[in-house]
Amino acid sequence: MKKHIKNPDSPPSAPTTSKNGAPPDRKSGNTARQPAPQQPPGQPKCGASTEKRSEGGIHTAVPGTTFERTGARRATPGEIAAHKSPSRKHTKPQEKSPGGRTAGSARANNTYTTYRLIGALAAVAAVLVAIIVMLFAGGAPAGIPSIAGMEGETDLPDDTPSGKTAPAEEEDSGKLILKNKDRIFVVCIDPGHGYDDPGAICEETMGDVTEKEVALAVGLMLRDKLEEAGIKVIMTRSDDTVPPEHDGSQQYTLDPFERVDFVKSHPETSLFISLHCDAFTDDTSVGGTRIYIYEGGVEGTQQYAQALADAIGQQISSEVPVIAKDIYEAYYVTKKLTVPSVLIEMGFTTNDSDAKNLLSDEWRKAFVYGTAAGIIAYINSLGFSPEV
Fold first, then answer.
1. CB 116 within 8 A of CB 108
2. Integer angstrom CA distances of residue 197 from 71, 120, 251
3. Closest CA to 312 of 361, 369, 239
């Protein structure tokens, strides 16, 4: 006699009679029950949802079925019924959409597609923001520790036929000689930070003197030295007084964007120089004067920087490296101007020796003389300048 094998995919039917042939006793529950499905080993006992996505939406994955292993088919009605919560006895039929799929399935698919689109747009926006920040943010170049061991030499191409800018000449009185007096040269000096922005602070080595004060003092000395030689000078700031019209509701600062706008508002500008002090608390042995430029700067930038490095190094008896940075790391003021531009870190406030120099009037005079000599040497090597 052949045994009847029940289709495992068909939903279980309720028995109509008990073992003795009598109708089932609903009060006593004397009804033949199907044994509860055994949970496969390794499956979570609770709280873990096993769901897979298919074209039609979200479907329950029955352990051990083809759908769970490969996603090749959906769970059958019998499989879903066997794993359905007992409390859900009645399920409202889903409405059919005109395309044949259920409305709930279409909504789930549309929602999933919408979320994917939103996620893709958010990712693109994040990438664009990151690129904009890297391109336009003005900040200190990274990698200071790797610079500490530099010998002060850089592989910068020379713009002059002789390979090196001739040093500026001076009179017996020490006054620097500007040979190209038939044209007007305008140098913009940019003392870093200022007003409510103190810049680098290191009380252990600098006391109550901040970066903004050193930068302004040296900037004013450089202005006087250049004007003495017959060069016209403009400054992004010549004092540290907050304008009276400022209401004080917010800090008053001069950001890199405003500094660049200032130079662009003076098209007669021939050269730009920004003065700063550096700091590196991770290693206080890091020190020295450094000149930063943008590697993609306008023609003449590298020669200008090297002329400064040579003249300053000679005056302060120290090698001064010229460090060219790419568009992602370069200072904003060095890469957004149409004239040769440099940013000089005069020294590290966190280094004992540098701090003493930055506070010394004699060292400042030597630095200013070397900077002015470098600027004049570069101008003399040109033989021309924009007419005003």
1. no
2. 61, 39, 8
3. 369
- CA distance to 25, 356, 358, per residue, from 28 (Å): 6, 98, 98
- Helix and strand tally (H, E) in the chain? 11, 8
Between CA 23 and CA 19 the distance in angstroms is: 9
Burial of 144 (0-12, 13-18, 19+ CB in 10 A): middle
Q: Which two tokens stand for residue 363?
A: 């060292």
Query: In whole angstroms, what is the distance from residue 146 CA to residue 37 CA?
Result: 66
With tokens 């919408």, the residue in question is: 114
Cα 187 from chain centre? 31
Q: Measured between alpha carbons, how far is 361 from 96 in angstroms, rounded to an integer?
A: 87
Tell me the domain boundaries of the chain: 51-82, 140-241+252-382
**pLDDT digits (tens), the chain, 388 positions:** 444 444 545 445 444 444 444 444 444 444 444 554 454 554 444 443 433 333 333 333 444 443 333 344 444 555 445 544 444 444 444 544 454 554 555 555 667 677 778 878 887 777 776 666 555 555 544 556 544 334 333 444 444 434 456 666 665 556 788 887 777 899 999 999 999 999 999 999 999 999 999 999 999 999 999 999 999 999 999 999 998 888 888 899 999 999 999 999 999 999 999 999 999 999 999 999 999 999 999 999 999 999 999 999 999 999 999 999 999 999 999 999 999 999 999 999 999 999 999 999 999 999 999 999 999 999 998 865 444 3
The SS3 call for residue 308 is helix
Q: How far apart are CA 75 and CA 303, in angstroms?
A: 75
d(CA 317, CA 181): 30
> Left, alpha or beta for 353 (phi > 0: left; psi -120 to 50: alpha)?
alpha
Domain 140-241+252-382: CATH class, spelled out: alpha beta
